[in-house]
Amino acid sequence: MQYWFAHRSFAGLEGSEFLPATLLYLFIPTWLIPTGWFSYANYLPAALIINLVVVIGHLILVKNYAPVNRLPKFIFLLACFGPILLFRFDALATLTLIISLLFFSREKIGLSGFFLGLASAIKVYPVIFLPYLLLILWQKKALKSIVGLLIYFFEAIILSTLAFFALGGDYQQILTALNFHNLKSISIESIPGSFLTAWSLLTTGQAPGLISGYGIWAIPGPAALFNRLWVLPVAVIYLSLWQQQLFKRFDWGVIFSLMLVFLVFSKNLNPQYAWWFLSLLPFVKTSRLVWLLAFGIAILNQLVYPVYYTWLLEEFYQQNRSYWVYYLLLLRNLLIIALAYLSLKTWYSPVSKTKGKLALK
Known about the structure:
By secondary structure, the protein is mostly helical. Helices cover about 65% and strands about 5% of the residues.
């Protein structure tokens, strides 16, 4: 936004990781700033207000559409997670995604497609849920609904792109933003990053060297491999769903599982990314253990960032001491893996052949 305040246009903006819809959202707080007071210092509190409204939107959805008695748990989860959502735009992506899924569960397909397209235009990851929704409609032989969902999905993306062009943006900037994350190394917060760090400690007695770039702190490793590795486990989930004929109805638990598996195999798991699955939890039919794990993940997430993040970088990775702060991060990631396992367990059943037909155990 500093670039916008200097040029009053997105023309010439270079090296941005933000997609058009995200830049438009970051542009909204300027409407709260009186004429003649435009500055980055005045922009920050306006952005905090907008993000707070988005967080309140989550609370309203949970209160009105989640199962009974989920709101107190969700409020406590927010408290454990900390204030990071006020300083990031990820809550907007999760809010629009949840709205899309609520519309789909109520068979309002056009609105569902539009909000899913908007969520995908903000953060690309919601697109992994599009096949799930399409396959449910395919199972119902609702071909018109499939076409409608896709039309509204792409409409949201196209409209946000056209608005971006109107403010001076261009096609090359979009390509740069899409490629930005491919260029990142394996972040220290990611699950692969935690395991590579553990391997370095076991084999060399030292933490791996830090790499700074593209907005993250990372470590050396096969980053290019992880750009597409997540596709395989997500595809396995879809294959399992197809084998078990679980496309007959919408299930929040499947969405929750897809989100967790995607993050487990991703090379980046920034602290705010944990909200991608925690925000879905109130709508998922689950156990008390899952909620306890979620509370633990949220608390550890806040301890790692921002409370002890400087210790993690300087004391552990650079000085090879204060291992306890790395163990906090490792424990958070192990809890995320455990949560993914429990989530898959709620709907996945081994498939065996009985009298020539697939039967669920």
